[in-house]
Amino acid sequence: MSETTLEGGARDHIAPLPIRVRRVYNESMDSYIRRLASANGVTAVDVGRWLRESAILPRELSKATWYAAWARLGDLPPKSLPGDPGPGVDRALCRRCSHGQRVEGRMPAWGLICLRHGCWIDPADGSSMRQTELRAERAFRRTLSSSGLHMESPGLQFALRLASLAVSPDWLDARTHRHGFRSLRASLFPAQVRIAADLFRHDELAALRSTEPGRRLESCERWLACRIAGLGERDEPWRAAGILSALLQHLEDRTVVVELEEILYRFAR
């Protein structure tokens, strides 16, 4: 996006705000606008109203023009304006990467852990970290994000649903007491990644689908038990086997990742 996005000389009438804010890597413009406005004791709504009432910006404007105006208010170089934000949704970025500030953006290639700082990206996920969880993050980036999948993908959400049913609730409670407060998704992250990684392997799906219908439920239970082995105690894969078995009935032999994502969309809800 170039500075010509601000038409009619609007850029010449917009002076940077007194207090500048540095935009964090991967930060969305909406997050940056919120922080810039807050640092200057105003709101984005108030600034937008003033720009329109002053005829600096038109009443109806595109998001690109709105972002370009705020880039000028923050004295950002034109090249820093965002392009395609990528898949997924905005979420909290690593507090250490953002120097303790509450910043949001999209990180489709990241799971739940910042490998640079070895911590959960969202502090609400917990404070402690295990090697099992660090390995899960590396596996996510190596096998899942490299295939175009991200944490909000139906496949990852379906894997989380299976993990939440298959892993023993008693173990989750005990883990919370042992390691301090943490979110359910953080406790289930290693199991979620293991399940999702194999869920998108054609040979794994083919093996499950080749099982006789009368024994498919049992086969699904064993498959899940192997994916979560060593992650908890008194696991209960039978609670998730029925959902996995139902999914298999909707798959074709030659299902590819894109088609599987579409099918998983309704199973993940």
Write the layout of secondary structure elements.
Elements: H1 29-39, H2 44-53, H3 63-73, E1 91-92, E2 104-105, E3 113-114, E4 119-120, H4 131-144, H5 154-166, H6 169-179, H7 184-199, H8 202-209, H9 216-228, H10 238-248, H11 257-267
Antiparallel strand pairs: 1-2, 3-4
Helix pairs in contact: 4-7, 5-7, 5-10, 9-10
The helix count comes to 11
State the order of secondary-structure elements, H for helix, E for strand. Answer: HHHEEEEHHHHHHHH
Strand content: under 5%
User: Nearest-angstrom radius of gyration?
Assistant: 23 Å
Helix content: 40-55%
Going by helix content, strand content and strand pairing, the class is mainly alpha
What average pLDDT do the residues reach? 81
Lateral strand order in the biggest sheet: 1-2
Task: Describe, in plain words, how this protein is organized in 3D.
The chain is mainly α and 269 residues long. The chain has two domains: 3-80, no CATH class; 109-267, no CATH class. It has helices at residues 29-39, 44-53, 63-73, 131-144, 154-166, 169-179, 184-199, 202-209, 216-228, 238-248, 257-267, and strands spanning 91-92, 104-105, 113-114, 119-120. It has a two-stranded antiparallel sheet with strand order 1-2. The chain has a two-stranded antiparallel ribbon with strand order 3-4. A hairpin with a 4-residue loop joins strand 3 (113-114) and strand 4. The longest helix is centred in the C-terminal third of the chain and has 16 residues, at 184-199. The chain is elongated. It starts with 28 loop residues before the first helix and ends with a helix.
